[in-house]
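Customer escalation, tier 2.

The customer says the design service returned an amino acid string that "doesn't look like it belongs to this structure." They asked us to rerun it and document both sides in this ticket. The original C-alpha cells are below, unchanged.
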C-alpha cells in the first residue's frame, strides 16, 4: 500500500508567464534609450540645419551690414521688395533656369545611356563603374579651372578644335549663350557618372523575368529598354530630376571659378542665384538682403519639388486607374 502526497492546487492561467515588474528607473531607461540613440542626429540638425534656417529668416527682416553685424534696423519685407525690384535678380533667375536646363537634361540622358551600357556583362565593367565616380570625386575648383583653360578664347583646346573644322573662335567667357553652355558643360561632366550609377542600381533591381518574357515575345533590346527598363526606372528618374533641379538652383562653384567674378561675367550673363546672393552679402555687404535671397531660393526649391511630386503622384494614380 503506497501513500501519495496530496496534489498541489493548480496555478491560475497565465501565472507562469507573469514576471515581476522592473523598477521605475529601468522602465524609464528602456523608453528613453531609442531617443538617446537618435539624439545626436537631431542635435546636429538643430544646430547646423534648423537654427541657421530660422536665423536667416529673422535676419532677412532687418537691415544688416557686414561691417556692423551687431547693428540691426527693422525693415520688415523691405529686403524682399528690394530683391524683387532689382533687375539683376530676375536676370540671375533666368540664367539659373537656362543653365539648369542646359545641364540637367543632357546629363540625365547621358547617364541613362551609360547605365544601360554598364548593365551588360562587359569586360572590366568594375573598372568602368568606378571610373564613373572620378569626375564627382574631383574638386570643383580643380575641374572648373581646367575647363576654363579648355574654353579659353585664344589658346583653348575647344576653339582649336573648332578652328580645325573651319569655324571661327568663340568667346566663351563674354558671350551669353556661349558662357552658359561652358558652365553647363562643367556641371554635366561632374554629375553624369554619379547619376549613371544611381540608374544602374535601379536597373539591377528590375526583375530579370520581365526581360526574359519580353525576349520570348520577340522584343528587341530597344523595345525592352523602352517598355521594361524605363517604366521600372520611373521613380529613380523622378528622384534624379528633383535632385538635379535642386543642385541647379544652388549652383555656385562652377560659375564663380569659371572667370573668377562674383558678377557672373562682364554683363552678368551667367550669374546664378547663388552668385547673386554671394554678391549682395559679401560684395555689397548687405547681409539682410542676402538672407532674403536665400529664403527666396529655399521657397523656389520647395515649389519645384512640390510640383514634381504632384506630377509624379498624378501619373501614378492615372496608371493605377487603368
Amino acid at each position: 500500500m503506497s501513500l501519495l502526497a496530496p496534489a498541489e492546487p493548480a496555478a491560475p492561467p497565465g501565472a507562469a508567464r507573469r514576471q515581476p515588474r522592473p523598477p521605475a528607473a529601468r522602465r524609464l531607461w528602456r523608453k528613453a534609450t531609442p531617443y538617446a540613440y537618435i539624439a545626436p542626429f537631431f542635435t546636429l540638425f538643430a544646430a547646423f540645419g534648423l537654427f541657421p534656417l530660422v536665423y536667416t529668416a529673422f535676419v532677412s527682416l532687418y537691415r544688416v551690414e557686414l561691417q556692423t553685424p551687431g547693428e540691426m534696423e527693422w525693415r520688415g519685407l523691405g529686403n524682399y521688395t528690394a530683391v524683387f525690384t532689382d533687375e539683376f535678380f530676375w536676370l540671375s533667375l533666368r540664367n539659373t533656369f537656362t543653365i539648369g536646363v542646359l545641364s540637367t537634361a543632357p546629363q540625365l540622358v547621358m547617364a541613362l545611356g551609360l547605365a544601360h551600357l554598364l548593365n551588360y556583362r562587359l569586360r572590366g565593367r568594375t573598372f568602368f563603374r568606378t571610373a564613373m565616380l572620378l569626375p564627382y570625386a574631383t574638386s570643383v575648383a580643380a575641374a572648373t579651372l581646367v575647363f576654363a583653360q579648355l574654353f579659353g578664347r585664344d589658346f583653348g583646346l575647344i576653339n582649336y578644335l573648332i578652328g580645325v573644322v573651319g569655324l571661327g573662335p568663340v568667346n566663351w567667357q563674354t558671350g551669353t549663350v556661349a558662357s552658359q553652355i561652358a558652365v553647363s558643360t562643367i556641371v554635366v561632366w561632374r554629375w553624369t557618372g554619379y547619376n549613371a550609377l544611381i540608374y544602374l542600381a535601379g536597373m539591377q533591381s528590375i526583375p530579370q523575368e520581365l526581360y526574359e518574357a519580353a525576349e520570348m515575345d520577340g522584343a528587341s533590346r530597344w523595345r525592352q529598354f523602352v517598355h521594361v527598363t524605363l517604366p521600372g526606372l520611373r521613380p529613380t528618374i523622378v528622384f534624379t530630376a528633383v535632385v538635379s533641379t535642386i543642385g541647379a538652383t544652388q549652383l555656385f562653384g562652377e560659375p564663380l571659378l569659371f572667370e573668377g567674378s562674383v558678377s557672373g561675367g562682364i554683363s552678368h550673363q551667367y550669374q546664378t542665384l547663388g552668385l547673386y546672393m554671394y554678391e549682395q552679402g559679401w560684395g555689397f555687404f548687405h547681409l539682410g538682403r542676402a538672407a532674403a535671397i536665400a529664403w527666396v531660393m529655399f521657397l523656389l526649391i520647395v515649389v519645384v519639388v512640390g510640383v514634381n511630386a504632384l506630377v509624379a503622384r498624378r501619373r501614378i494614380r492615372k496608371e493605377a486607374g487603368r
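Tier 2 assessment: The sequence is consistent with the input. The domain at 78-320 is CATH 1.10.3720.10 (MetI-like fold). DSSP finds 14 helices and two strands in the chain. Sent an explanation to the customer and offered a walkthrough call.
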